[in-house]
Amino acid sequence: MKFGTKVIHAGIEPDPTTGAVMTPIYQTSTYAQESPGKHKGYEYARTKNPTRSALEANVAALENGKKAVCFGSGLAATGAILQTLEPNDEIISTNDLYGGTYRLFTKVFGKYGIKSHFVGMSKPADIEEYINDNIKMIWVETPTNPMLNIIDIEAVCTIAKKHGIPVCVDNTFASPYLQNPIDLGADIVVHSATKYLGGHSDVVHGIVVCKEEAFADELFFLQNAAGAVPGPQDCFLILRGIKTLHLRVQRACENARKIAEFLKTHEKVANVYWPGFEDHPGHEVAKRQMRDFGGMVSFSLKYDTFEAAAMVLGNTHFFTCAESLGGVESLIGHPATMTHGSIPREQRLKVGITDSLIRLSVGVEDASDLVADLKHALDWIEV
Ligand SMILES: *Cc1c(COP(=O)(O)O)cnc(C)c1O
To answer: Would you call 42 a catalytic residue per the annotation?
Structure first.
């Protein structure tokens, strides 16, 4: 099955009781048992739910994994992965990490004796010096937020394999349509399904895909034992969103390209960060490991102030100023005050998050309207 067929058909069967073509929302907490312990495979909905099972089978196929396991949010999914570790285990993680993941690693799991090393991975060989006997996981996020740096997944996995360390890739920014980390050697893939998989900014959800059945079994145990499960309606919404994943991401990529090219020539724009540019440092790797360059674009202004950025953010009409990404509608954000507001200024300047940096999640609207919207907003900056 090719990708566009998988999104519609993988793991999806007409409902066995009614023939309903669309997977029903099994809104139930429990299931009738014929006699004690004699049931149809479903006992209690924390443990198993048919809507959730259909979604798990579908996403496992999209990522070419063995099994997928659903959770109530991307961070709940990430938390479950970390719950498989033991006190004194250590993680090597990319330093350019989603803020919520950083907080979970340091403030929550740090307390239970799991130590994280945050390392730049633009040169994968740099990981070697952090490897010791306690390292039990390598955590990769690519493209990164908001600078859209690219990490070579295959190169990281080659190093990890030499030492027998599993690699987990947060594939939220790329989506399975653009990038399949398991094919590149990764063991675990995690998605905030809130973003591209759901695709309509109407649900919070997380999914882990496992290359090996044994790790999936550990996560199924934690899904039931720790209980961070999604509701059936949320699973339905993700299943519904996935049916158009390939169409949405393809259009978002096309729009992002037009917007990046427009911004690059604009007199008020200083830098444009988009891996599709040949002079982007990760361009060659992105070309190799992704099918296109994604729907995210960041840019900074020549007039590098909060005020200038605020002029742009306050004057777009189709780009809504909001957190999150990956929906059909275009969003605009200011990392220095929004997603990365808790990082000290000196530290964020070092990684390129300047006062005027603006991040776009490009949606599937008509590209000419989006370009005109940004053009109009940029006109408001007085230099
Ligand atoms: C949003 C996001 C998360 C967290 O997911 P939630 O569904 O919000 O819990 C993790 N990683 C990345 C890259 C994200 O963008």
So the answer is: no
